[in-house]
Amino acid sequence: MRAAVAPQKLKAVYAGVAGRYDWQHGLLTLHSDQRGRELVVDRTVNRGDRVLDAGGGTGSTTLLAAGKVGPEGHVTQFDFSSQMQAVARERAVAAGLSGRMDFQSGDMLALPYAEASFDSVLSTYSLCPLFDPAKGALELYRVLKPGGRLGVAHSASPENPVIYWLAERLEDIIWHFPGISMGCRAVSVLPALLRAGARPLFERRLGVPLYPFLVFVVEKPA
């Protein structure tokens, strides 16, 4: 796995791209990123849930979740970038969903919540830049209630060896431009969750051949 961008540098990168994050990420993924968000929310969130969207950024997943939980539910959006969250707040007000949401900031590797705090937990493309993605995934699992679901979408390595080689060579170049890569690289976190006892419910690969995503949902046994 490629080494992570240093946290302070990563924070500066996201401060700089906040205003263009959505169209840039969508362009680079041919908009398969939104399909991943939709799959995660559709298969993880139920009406009335208390939801954590960890690394929620500009709010694309948060808004989908807020729409699905209905007026009985609530979504906490957690992110380390105030600039990204400012965009999310504006979008929530424009969508008329701000009453179902609150915003908190901090480190995904040390979430400020007790164990079993949320009915469902989401992470879409927010584990990829972390210094320790597996630790981040286990933090998400820790704050999930027994019987609840964790839905994740993250960058993955191509399975075809030729395409994998091409992707790595291109990544060698792009990695020198954090404003383009946004510190996102292929990670693997599902094995750590399975070792922790998570029960797999859904798994699918999607996206462009050079840069696929893995989307999965696990349940915490009751």
Would you give an account of this structure?
The chain is built from nine helices and seven strands. The chain has one domain (7-153, 174-219): Vaccinia Virus protein VP39 (Rossmann fold, 3-Layer(aba) Sandwich). A seven-stranded mixed β-sheet has the order 3-2-1-4-5-7-6. The mean pLDDT is 94. Strand 2, helix 5 (82-95) and strand 3 form a beta-alpha-beta unit. Helix 3 (32-44) packs parallel to helix 4. The chain has 222 residues and is of the alpha/beta class.
Report the total helices: 9
Number of strands: 7
Low-confidence parts, pLDDT < 50 over ≥5 residues? Answer: none
What assembly state would you assign to the polypeptide chains in this entry? single chain
Main beta sheet, described? Answer: 7 strands, mixed
Fourth CATH level, the homologous superfamily: Vaccinia Virus protein VP39
User: How many domains make up the coordinates?
Assistant: 1
* Largest sheet: spatial strand order: 3-2-1-4-5-7-6
Integer average pLDDT = 94
Please give the CATH architecture: 3-Layer(aba) Sandwich
CATH domain class name? Alpha Beta
Q: Helices and strands: which structural class?
A: alpha/beta
Order of helices and strands: HHHEHEHEEHEHHHEE
Helicity, in percent? Answer: 40-55%
Distance between the termini: 33 Å
List keywords for this structure.
alpha/beta; 7 strands; 222 residues
Draw up the topology in text.
Layout (H helix, E strand, L loop, with lengths): L6 H11 L3 H8 L3 H13 L5 E5 L5 H10 L4 E6 L2 H14 L5 E5 L12 E7 L8 H10 L1 E12 L5 H14 L3 H4 L8 H6 L3 E9 L4 E8 L3
Parallel strand pairs: 1-2, 1-4, 2-3, 4-5
Antiparallel strand pairs: 5-7, 6-7
